[in-house]
Amino acid sequence: MEYTVTERFLKYVQLDTQADPLSGTFPSSEKQKDLTKVLCEELKSMGIEYTTNDAGYIYATLPSNMDKDCPKIFFCAHLDTAPDCSGTNVKPILHTDYKGQDIILPDDPNLVISSAQFPNLKDKIGHDIITASGLTLLGSDDKSGVAIIMDALHQLVHNNTIPHGTVKALFTTDEEIGKGVAKVDLQLLDADFGYTLDSGDLGCFEDENFSANALKLTIHGVSAHPGYAKGTMENAIKIASEIVASLPKLTLCPEMTDKKDGFIHPTSIQGGLESATVDFILRDFETGKLDEYAGLISEIAEVVLKSYPNSSYNIEVKVQYRNMKDILNKHPMVSELALKAMKNVGISPVYGSIRGGTDGAVLSHMGLPCPNVFAGEQAIHSKYEWVSVQDMQKGVDTVLEICKLASAM
Ligand SMILES: [Zn+2]
After folding, report:
1. Rounded to 5°, angle at Cα 330 from 328 and 336
2. pLDDT confidence bin for 38, thresholds 50/70/90
3. Please, are residues 79 and 173 in contact by the beta-carbon 8 Å criterion?
4. Cα(264)–Cα(254) distance, rounded to whole angstroms?
5. Is the pLDDT of residue 358 over 90?
6. What is the whole-number distance in angstroms between the Cα of residue 340 and the centre of ligand 1?
7. What pLDDT does residue 182 have?
8. What is the DSSP letter of 346?
9. Which residues of 192-261 form beta strands (DSSP E)?
10. Which of 179-183, 254-258, 359-363, 388-392 has the lowest mean pLDDT?
11. Which are the contacts of 25, defined by CB distance < 8 A and separation ≥ 6?
12. Residue 179 pLDDT > 90, yes or no?
C-alpha cells in the first residue's frame, strides 16, 4: 500500500502548534487545537471512532480484527512544538533524492544543513529530506510521530490482511512544556501498554530516562545595619554563593557529564541579606542516587555554615519524574516486541537513554508501560530540524509490525 505519511506530515507542520511555557491554561496555547481539528476530520474520514478533551487530546480506537483476545496497545505522539524556536508560518521543503550535498535554507542562506554538522545525513543518500525554510523550526518533533501513527491507522483500516488487536492512538498537547500527559484519562485510553513515537534517527529506541527531583535550598542569615554589623551580620547572599561555589566542578554537573552520568544543577539563585534560596534540579538514571545528591548539598551547606554560627538552612525536595526502566524491567516483553518489530522490517535498533523526561515515563509510572520509538526527528528545536521521508515510512512499517506481533500474543 502507498504511504500517506509524507503528505500528512507536510500538512501538519504548516499549522503553528507552539506550546507557551508562560501560560497557565490547558492547552497552553489554543492554536494547538487547530491540529486536533484536522486529525479529527482525518479520523472521521477513515471511519475511526475518537473522543477529545478540553486540552485538545485525541483518543482514537481501531477495533480488533481478531476473533481472540490479544493485548490492547496504544501509540502516542504530541501535537505541540517547542517554545525554543518559532513555529509560525513553517514552510516545509521537500529535497528529493538527496545526494550528500549541503542543504541551504532559502529564507536564511546563512543556515546550512551539512553532513559535517549532522553526520547521520551521510546515511540518507537517496532519501527525500524535509527541512524548514530557514526562519522557523520544522516541527518534526513530534509531527513525524503524529504522521506515522495516522498513516499506520490508515493502512490498518484499508488493508484488512494485517492482523491486529485493538489499536489505540493518543495525541497529547503541551509535551514540550512538561505537561504532556497531565490531562490523560487512563480509563478512556483503556490499553495494556504502548509506545511514544518521539525519538530520533532510524532505529532509535529508548526505554530509560532520568529520574528527576527538584530541590530548594533556603539559607537563613542574620541581618544588621551595614554600618554597625561588625560581629553580627551573616549575609545569606554570601552563604548561598559559597555553597554554590563549593559544588563539584569536574563531575556531577551538566557541562561535564553525558551518557549515564547524573548531575546536580543549580537553576536559579535569589535572595537578600536575611534569606536566600537556590533552586536545583537533580538527575540520575538510578533513582536512589537522587537522595545521595541531596545529601551532598546538605554536607556542603553544613561545612559552609560552620563559619556562620547563627545562620541555618533548610532543604525541600520535590519528586518531578522517574525512570521508566523501573517499570519496564517488570514488563520486558513491551520493549522486546518493539525491538523484534524493528528487526522484522529490516532496522537495526539503536539503544539510547533519554537524559530528560518523556510522556512515556509518566505513563509508565501511571501503570501503562511505554517506551519510546524513533520517528526520524533530527536537530529538533532548531531551524536546522530535518527528517527523512524514508525513515518516517520505516516508522509506519514498525508500528504495523508491532500491531501484527501483538495480535499473536
Ligand atoms: Zn517530542
Report:
1. 55
2. very high
3. yes
4. 8
5. no
6. 23
7. 87
8. T
9. 193-199, 204-209, 211-220
10. 179-183
11. none
12. no
Alpha carbon of 329 to ligand 1 centroid (Å)? 23
Distance of CA 334 from the midpoint of ligand 1 (Å): 21
Closest to 9 (Cα-Cα) out of 396, 403, 404: 396
Please state, in angstroms and rounded to a whole number, the distance separating the CA atoms of residues 171 and 147.
11
Cα distance between residue 13 and residue 91, in whole Å:
8
Residue 18 Cα to ligand 1 middle (Å): 12
CA–CA distance, 98 with 119 (Å, rounded to integer) = 14
Active site residue 80: yes
Quote the pLDDT of residue 4: 98
30 is catalytic: no
CB-based contact 409:110 (threshold 8 Å): no
Cα 365 from Cα 67, distance rounded (Å): 31
Q: Which of 16, 141, 174, 175 is catalytic?
A: 175
Q: How many Å lie between the centroid of ligand 1 and the Cα of residue 177?
A: 10
* Residue 5: CB atoms within 10 Å: 26
Residue 267, Cβ density class (10 Å: 0-12 exposed, 13-18 middle, ≥19 buried): exposed
Residues 357, 354: Cα–Cα separation, whole Å: 7
Alpha-helical runs (H) found in 54-135: none
Catalytic annotation, pick one of 80, 142, 207, 385: 80
The position carrying cell 523484534 is 340
The residues facing 270 across adjacent strands are 277
Q: How far is the CA of 239 from the centre of ligand 1 (A)?
A: 39
Q: Which of 198, 156, 163, 192 is nearest to 73 (CA)?
A: 192
Cell of 387: 527528517
- DSSP letter (8 states) at residue 120: G
